[in-house]
Amino acid sequence: MASIALKSFIGLRQTTSENKSIVLSKPTTQTHRNFRINASKSSPRVTGRNLRVAVVGGGPAGGAAAETLAKGGVETFLFERKLDNCKPCGGAIPLCMVGEFDLPLDIIDRRVTKMKMISPSNVAVDIGRTLKPHEYIGMVRREVLDAYLRDRATTAGATVINGLFLKMDLPKSTGSPYVLHYSDYNAKTGGAGEKKTVEVDAVIGADGANSRVAKNINAGEYEYAIAFQERIKISDDKMKYYEDLAEMYVGDDVSPDFYGWVFPKCDHVAVGTGTVTHKGDIKKLQIATRLRARDKIEGGTIIRVEAHPIPEHPRPRRVLDRVALVGDAAGYVTKCSGEGIYFAAKSGRMCAEAIVEGSENGKRMVDESDLRKYLEKWDKTYWPTYKVLDVLQKVFYRSNPAREAFVEMCADEYVQKMTFDSYLYKKVVPGNPLDDLKLAVNTIGSLVRANALRKEMEKLSV
Ligand SMILES: Cc1cc2nc3c(=O)[nH]c(=O)nc-3n(C[C@H](O)[C@H](O)[C@H](O)COP(=O)(O)OP(=O)(O)OC[C@H]3O[C@@H](n4cnc5c(N)ncnc54)[C@H](O)[C@@H]3O)c2cc1C
User: Fold this and answer.
1) I need a surface site. Which of 174, 241, 364, 377 has the fewest CB within 10 A?
2) Cα of 368 from ligand 1 centre, angstroms
3) Ligand 1 pocket, mutate which of 85, 207, 334 (most atoms under 8 A from CB)
4) pLDDT tens digits, one per residue of 344-381
5) What is the spatial distance between Cα 68 and Cα 54, in angstroms, rounded to a whole number?
6) Which residues form a coiled coil (predicted)?
7) How far is the CA of 400 from the centre of ligand 1 (A)?
């Protein structure tokens, strides 16, 4: 399945030549960046109005997309079915997201500087030892982060519609509009909402793993993990332990192909796990995760239980005509870590930038080639990250001995530094050749020991 994923991570197209330099700016009540863009073609001008784009889904992907579109002069409609949505999520975000998206520190519940990786035999390694004083992993509650990003989109000029997107009619001819059908919950007509339609020139599908926009363009399916999480309120004393500390548990008991976690939030911890291969066992795996952390969460009260699919790889199709998918709707969660918040916000922003650029600040019609520029940039920037994490998952999450080897390796400061730098800054960090060689030798050593251990265990179980 993973190899299919990587093969399908291709969406490159030729760009055309005409280059015009324009400045991205739209007067708003908020100050924002002006950045230079290069328009590369002359599509028809839209007259009497600006380009209209619908963003379906108000999570990190949709919020970031809508803000960028509105700032760039595009008439933007952001659809969100539930404005107080608590997306089931661990809520761990990398440091670079805080900077790149100008997130205020008061929406971050915890700054984690200690991350314990715990092996199947409960050997714990602190993998945060190489962090610099200003570095941390942010822990957010999604209801807080998502609402904040949507509010920013509103401030930038987007119209937020509290409504459920139902379906869309595709354009009947080149340049004619998409007609979106939705239930409008703004109009106070009871729970079902009022059926309405809106016409737009382009659509961004940011509606998550069960995307209806993806279905509308026959984007194809993806393999997915099911992730389960409980928010557990524990005593202040117990919370002290998790003040700036998160835990990751690996082992067949907590997940045959993923990891279990305890992530700290403002006044509770989020305890969860996920699996692709044993979805029917998810509750059993969750109980095992809770058991592993039992001493530290003892006496706690479960205040919320949540579960949701996590995509395993990009959809076969991510762009069709003037429709693009971003975030989970496109399938941008990394293997191994299950991380998707940053990639959602980033892909939403990148896609919106491509539309702003292609439309010359909302003045011209866009076409598929404009939207494909987003795919081209995305694949070029992040393909190596997805590939590396895919390989890591295959090597280290396949058996308990391999996981013991993985945790053993995590004790190495060089491994910690490389891992954290890559996670926090989303850049492939150039290594030191001597340390790389040492790491390779150590990895092989750990894996050989893991293999020997596996064989011994197999003998024992015969
Ligand atoms: C249990 C769990 C733990 C996770 N932990 C982490 C973590 O710690 N760190 C991390 O980086 N990632 C984590 N992830 C992954 C992360 O949650 C997703 O990758 C991320 O939420 C994707 O953002 P998105 O904006 O693409 O989609 P979503 O966050 O799913 O947002 C989609 C939005 O669209 C709305 N919507 C859907 N359909 C419609 C419709 N028809 N009409 C109108 N609105 C609609 C939804 O209400 C929702 O608000 C976790 C996932 C799970 C399930």
Assistant:
1) 174
2) 26
3) 207
4) 999 999 999 999 999 999 999 999 999 999 999 999 99
5) 13
6) none
7) 30
Which stretch of 161-170, 250-259, 376-385, 431-440 has the lowest confidence by average pLDDT?
431-440
Give the chain's domains with CATH numbers.
2-85+143-222+313-381 (3.50.50.60)
pLDDT at 35: 46
List all residues whose CB is within 6 A of at least one atom of ligand 1.
56-62, 79-82, 85, 87-92, 164-165, 206-208, 212, 227, 229, 272, 308, 310, 327-329, 333, 338-342, 344
pLDDT of 462: 39
Token pair, residue 438, equals 């040492």
CA atoms within 13 A on the CB side of 129: 11
From its phi and psi, is residue 352 left (phi > 0), alpha (psi between -120 and 50) or beta? Answer: alpha
pLDDT class of 124 with cuts at 50, 70, 90:
very high
Distances (CA, A) of 295 to 90, 291, 369: 21, 8, 56
